[in-house]
């Protein structure tokens, strides 16, 4: 189900920033591998947030070959810690960074992002959560202490992707229960994430229906 009307989607796609050369190559690879990158509409929001937050250090949960990271870099971020289970994806990310001259600005950590974050103290200025949907709340809780006040956390796939958006709407608007984890772990994970950030006084949150829907939270304490 498309969250936005077709003509609005076309307008946002037509007015999103052009890909850089490396982003265009990554987007072609994503098509070839059928790999879910965040895309230019949501990517432009990452760029904007990095710029507004004057971001220096960024942490990502789930980076693939580093497409989303390039948007933070375009927004002026100094460095991005990329995390990825899949060694081939991470290696491709390193190759892109070498070829396009930004290898000193990205670090690819292969392994479980939930363990990698424990090895970093921060402070981080921006965070992207885009890995296993059932782990979003744990990721948020583990990274929040490392986020500086005024920093931002972006979570992808809050309206589309591997989630049942109708169930999320029924939960948020009508108080319907979320599906149990054994029935639909991704939808439950996203629903719980939205509940947690909306009720946490440490952050202010807005949902933006760009790309596959992003929850943007800024730390206020
Ligand atoms: C949606 S893709 C990331 C796309 C990327 N953020 C982008 O827009 O370019 C999700 C990635 O997270 C990885 N992943 C899932 N769970 C993970 C975990 N616990 N630790 C590290 N990587 C994980 C998957 O292997 C997959 O490559």
From TrEMBL:
The keyword Nucleus does not apply. It comes from the Archaea. It is an enzyme of class 2 (transferase). Pfam families: Methyltransf_3 (PF01596). CDD domains: AdoMet_MTases (cd02440). GO terms for biological process: methylation. Its EC number is 2.1.1.-. InterPro entries: SAM-dependent_MTases_sf, SAM_O-MeTrfase. Keywords: Methyltransferase, S-adenosyl-L-methionine, Transferase. GO terms for molecular function: methyltransferase activity. This is O-methyltransferase. It comes from Halorubrum rubrum.
């Amino acid at each position: 189900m498309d969250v936005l009307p077709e003509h609005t989607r076309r307008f946002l796609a037509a007015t999103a920033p052009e890909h850089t050369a490396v982003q265009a190559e990554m987007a072609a690879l994503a098509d070839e591998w059928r790999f879910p990158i965040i895309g230019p509409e949501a990517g432009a929001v990452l760029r904007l947030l990095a710029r507004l937050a004057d971001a220096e250090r960024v942490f990502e949960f789930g980076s693939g070959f580093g497409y989303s990271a390039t948007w933070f870099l375009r927004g002026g971020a100094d460095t991005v810690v990329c995390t990825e289970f899949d060694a081939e994806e991470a290696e491709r990310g390193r190759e892109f960074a070498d070829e396009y001259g930004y290898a000193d600005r990205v670090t690819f950590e292969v392994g479980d992002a939930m363990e990698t974050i424990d090895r970093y103290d921060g402070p981080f200025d921006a965070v992207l959560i885009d890995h296993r949907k059932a782990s979003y709340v744990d990721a948020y809780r583990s990274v929040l202490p490392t986020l500086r006040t005024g920093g931002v956390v972006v979570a992808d796939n809050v309206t589309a992707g591997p989630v049942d958006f109708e169930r999320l709407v029924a939960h948020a608007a009508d108080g319907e229960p979320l599906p149990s984890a054994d029935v639909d772990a991704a939808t439950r994970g996203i629903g719980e994430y939205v509940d947690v950030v909306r009720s946490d006084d440490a952050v202010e949150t807005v949902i933006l229906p760009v790309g596959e829907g992003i929850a943007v939270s800024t730390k206020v304490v």
